[in-house]
Amino acid sequence: MSSRHLLKVCGATTPQDVEAAAAAGADCVGLWHGVPGGPRELDPDGLAALAAAARSTGLLPVWVTFLADPAALVATARAAGAGWIQLHAYQPPAVVRALREALPASVGLVKVLHVAPGGAGCVERPLIGAYARAGTDLFLLDTATEDGRIGSTGRTLDQADVTALLPRLPRPFLLAGGLTPANRPAYEEVVAHPGFRGVDVDTAARDRVTGAFGVPEIAALARAWRHAGPAGRGLGLGPVPVAVPGPGSRPGPRSDTSQTRRIREMEPSS
Ligand SMILES: O=C(O)c1ccccc1N[C@@H]1O[C@H](COP(=O)(O)O)[C@@H](O)[C@H]1O
């Protein structure tokens, strides 16, 4: 038996984007709010409307944000009904903890770890254990460019930089950063890691002319990235064995409902 990996596509702005993602076989769709100056920024009503549209197609809506104020995050998460929240910036572990304490277990918490190119490593490396203990369900490894850009960089991570980080990750992770159907073979070692749960893509999910999500583009990503992993691995969000000891740990698998459970329950395909 083998497992199916997740495909998240990021930055939907219209119901048509959501429909394209669902039709092409994505599992999760990223919706922005609180990304200042971002070209795909949604207002709170737009976020809630597209989250509902995503749920109605069976997609898991993921709210992607740079916001760091716990009260604002909690209020928006409740109003929008996001399945997961992706903290895509340099929010400290205390923000994760505040969200974990305030939100139901059904809301998954994704913390992005930014990896700089050229062997410079992960910006948040000293905080990884603290993020896990604060309640992070899933890490997301993405590029931070030399000039400080984060999110939708279209820039790939070096497999060696990623694999150097993996022994320190006490939670499952998604991979991002300039991923395409063609560069899947460059990440064999990453895909084989027991914590790997799938990929997150913006640039390569889009029609080059219109800039909207493209069904052929997303379907090609799904074919390349979402297929079988090693036998017996599920999509659970529980702890991953790591070489790095950490003081305490959060309790075992949380009881949860709805969208997060849907991801946890995605059965391995043969
Ligand atoms: O999708 C975006 O444009 C975006 C903007 C701000 C924060 C996060 C964003 N998305 C993340 O960008 C990467 C994938 O981008 P790419 O494939 O390298 O272009 C992924 O982490 C998305 O969640």
Looking at this protein, list some descriptive labels.
single chain, 270 residues, alpha/beta, 9 helices, globular, binds the ligand O=C(O)c1ccccc1N[C@@H]1O[C@H](COP(=O)(O)O)[C@@H](O)[C@H]1O, aromatic amino acid biosynthesis, Aldolase_TIM, PRAI_dom, amino-acid biosynthesis, N-(5'-phosphoribosyl)anthranilate isomerase
- The SSE order reads EHEHEHEHEEHEHEHEHH
**Please, what is the oligomeric state?**
single chain
Low-confidence stretches: 230-234, 243-259, 261-270
Bound molecules: the ligand O=C(O)c1ccccc1N[C@@H]1O[C@H](COP(=O)(O)O)[C@@H](O)[C@H]1O
Write down how many β-strands occur, each being a DSSP E stretch of 2 or more residues: 9
Kindly state the mean pLDDT as a whole number?
A: 86
Give the strand content.
Answer: 15-25%
As a percent range, the share of helical residues equals 25-40%
CA radius of gyration is: 17 Å
Query: What would you call the shape?
Result: globular
Number of alpha- plus pi-helical segments: 9
Calculate the terminal CA-CA distance, rounded to whole Å: 5 Å
How is the main sheet built? 8 strands, parallel, barrel
Structural class: alpha/beta
